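Assemble and predict.
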Amino acid sequence: MFYPPDFAAFGIDLAALPVIHAPDARKAARAADALLRSGGFALLALDLGDAAALPLGMQSRLAGLAMKHHTAVLCLLRQRADRKDGRQVARGSLAAVRGESAKRRVDFDRFECVLRAVKDKRLGPGWTHVEVCRGPDGLC
Amino acid sequence: MDRMACVDLAALPLQVLLRAQPEWRSYPVVVVDRDKPSGVIQWVNERARSQRILPGMRYAAGLALSRELRGGVVSRAMVDDVTAELLQRLWRFSPRVEPSSSDAGVFWLDASGLGRLYPSLELWAEGIREDLREAGFASSTAVGFTRFGVYATAKAGNGSVTFQNPAQERSYVRRVSIDRLRIDPELRDTLLRLGVRTLGAFLDLPAEGIRKRFGAAAYELHQLARGEGWTRLCAREIVEPTERTVYLDDPEIDSDRLMAWIEPLLAELIAETTARREVVAAVTLELKLDNRSACCERVAPAAPTDDAAQLLGLVRLRLEAMQLPSGVVDLTIRTEGAGRSARQLDLLQEAPHRDLDAADRAFARIRAELGDGAVSRARLSEGHLPGAGYDWEPMSRMTSPKPRETGVRPLVRRVYAPPIALAARGRHEPDGWLVAGVAEGPVEEVVGPHIVSGGWWAREVSRAYYYVRTRSGRWLWIYHDQKRRRWFLQGEVE
């Protein structure tokens, strides 16, 4: 779970940030389905952690609902290099954009965060987004 | 002659707390305004009082006097809910009941004309006390002739008292101790210092002198005691519960077939609620099972509604999520009504870009499926330890966000609750400190320690926090618990 004081320091209004506590990835996807159908949200973040990828049928349904209601669905996964050649196992073939993040300490209290698109159905892969952030309390 | 009764549930918030936590009855218990060491004690039970824990103290001071002290918060809404429940009970004894608006737990009942229904008013009053006792409340009752007379007698807390004539009531009231009444503590202490210990002594004081010396509040009390300031009984209108019960011929476990029973009943209840110019705020299902057990489930829509499809959808989701051990033999469905909001009554509404009401309806569906605590939001609170810096509160309504502009944005940490215990460090680490296993590599950089301690009033905590970077590039947020002498993973910088 994200650490709420860090979100507050980020400028996010915690009072208007609903968090769904789901016992597993399947229930989380069902909750996302209900939220998408409402059309009340512009962005949904599914924190799946180390959980296995969602079933293809569920991905398909979420993708269809996201297009219908103009909602972005962001799935957060922790992947490791599972293949012998070091390439990561592809997950979420229906995803429009897939990115990998990395961070590097560049100064006493500054970290450079890089998001690299490994898949982008509209703009093509390879683009990167770089942002410099400060460390959390105790690391800056 | 008109007869009047008063029922007093002394220290109602404390009784509400003990009803919710019955295992605390053998402990000193207090009601506090906040469940924090700095919270102020508002009500105490006799065990706490005997240990010199008094209202007005800080919760931390109470804990210092007794390590066994139990405390909790009782909100105004909880007291209001209990008052509504008590009203329903008292309406069974009298059609005219008035709850006190200023003194929670005090009710006046019209006892006139009940002689034909009950053998005597003594038995009637004893029946009220017995009924409240079954509901988990201690009470005292008084049956007499005047509002103040029965109020003061009930406040005296001598169980059940019934007067046969007004003179008997006047004589009893004069002997009631003045500190039994809910009056301003400063006025009470002043009167006690002057030797005015009973209501009789107070009534003997001249009214104008009281106004001059003690102010308007004391004068008002004096007038009430003389029976001059009371208005007539303002009885609350009886609200009949909207419920339907169906007895099934054969035990039924299939949710689709149960829904076929529920659907027409719910439609009737919605029509009944609408006829009262209300909409449905919640639906309660009481199921009696074939194995003689029972279960009760309550679902609430995002906002009170008369939309049958929406309510049926929520009931269906809850029924499907239930694991019934046996077939249902009796089914009771009950609805709670609420007034329509001003927004629902608007003829023209400006539709927002994102429909927040639709989001609320989605929350209600998720709550019906995953449980009432499934949708929540974080609320920051004061606390030294990372886990005490926030808590989760149920979120029932979606609001438009108001984000703030910040300068350089911070990295966000992922937090593990509870923290994950790490393996103890070996004496010899030829490959370095493998804090997250071999795959992540050894620790290459350590930032810290940051010492955090607190909780001395309950269970002392002393921790040394570090950020460590593994060879794989992960920044882990760990701490060493100096009491337990163990390492824990608190979180990770994402």
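Residues 25-38 of chain A form the longest helix (14 residues).
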